[in-house]
Amino acid sequence: MLPGTGPSWAWAAKAVQESHRGFLLFANLSISEKPPHWAAWPTSVENMLRPDYPITTERLRLRAFRSDDLDALNSFQSRADVARYLYWGPRSRAESAAALAKRVHSAELQKEGQFIAVAVELAETGQLIGDLNLDYLSSEHRSGEIGFIFHPDFHGQGYAAEAATEMLRLGFEDLGLHRIIGRCDGRNTASASLMERLGMRKEAHLRENEMVKGEWADELVFAMLEDEWKVRS
Hints:
Layout: E1 13-14, E2 22-25, E3 55-56, E4 60-63, H1 70-77, H2 80-83, H3 93-104, E5 115-122, E6 128-138, E7 143-150, H4 159-174, E8 179-185, H5 189-197, E9 201-212, E10 215-225, H6 226-232
Parallel strand pairs: 2-7, 7-8
Antiparallel strand pairs: 1-2, 3-4, 4-5, 5-6, 6-7, 8-10, 9-10
Helix pairs in contact: 1-3
């Protein structure tokens, strides 16, 4: 799932790292965190991804995380509705600080097994509203996973789709991936709908495949191939 040591989902796709299941966290947009499985292409050369920040869209600015993002990050990581479908519960300020430290040092990819973390802010105000992830799962198979978590106050306005589209572009066009997946809790209809709007195919519905917070949880798996991205874009 997303970075670090476990699963993560929020308007969130399960992969927002530091955790992992993909964080598709749409406040019930969420994905969780789970340890990734990675590997390399070509066999003798590792791909590198060093985004030219900031990446701008019509309404957003995507940039590297900074140490002064703590208050804004904790403002949504601390919410029960955001953590509902994640592997972790509402985070304290100290827990968000630990998560932020990983993101600050994950602004680029140098090899498989790593993830890139991107902060999403409103271009007009500079307010941090989201957290994106791209995990480099395997260089041999050219595969990756996206994850995302957005502040509930900004759901339903198309911001997540606008930002996640850029993460797909980075994965396919800059990193040269062949396949990108996204995962979310089976109850997380908001995250599932988002991945469908991005053009990702639903490939699996795994029944009660994980014990999450004391109860069995289904997992949905979505994916897109590079040829499908080229047609979409």
